[in-house]
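Field reference: sequence -> structure
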Amino acid sequence: PPPPPSASSPVSVQIIVSGDPSDYDASKKAAVECAMAKVAKVECGAVTVTVTAASVLLDFIIITSDPAATKATVTTALATTAGASTALDVTVEKVPTVAVRFCPPNP
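Structure field:
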């Protein structure tokens, strides 16, 4: 089995939303990062998003000291497309995928 999450294990959230990747300039990316931070109950600076074509795939990384709790909080808050759409102020097309990413230990 994978090792338990460490204090530096990021939580990954992938969300398919409507629109075009070009809709996500620096300002819009900052806005959805802070919206996700609010959902995850972390600071805006703890969240980064990568935008790719899917319709639009928002791939968030949330850095947190309690990845299991953050995953549970985000999963609950974004459990429906309507709830996720409201929380992030974008039109979510599919219920988000939320996972803790396991980081290999430092040598």
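Note: Residues 10 and 63 are 5 Å apart (CA to CA).
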